[in-house]
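ok trying again, last paste got cut off:
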Amino acid sequence: MKIFIYILIALAAGLVIFNIANLNFSNLLEGDSAVAFICVLAGFCSILLLTILLISKKIEASSKMIKQ
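nice, full thing came through this time. structure:
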């Protein structure tokens, strides 16, 4: 599960980088640039959520070790 989460984080980071390259900074919220901007935000949200999931898994594993 841990490796799968790291793969998803890498894919999300790749999509963020790809969409940043597609941004038109003079017209950020028009046309294809708006779609790229929304995808950048979604990518950052997914990275944040996956990082929270990793941290919660580490806390769960450490709490199981303490209980035993």
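cool. The mean pLDDT is 93. The two ends are 23 Å apart (CA to CA).
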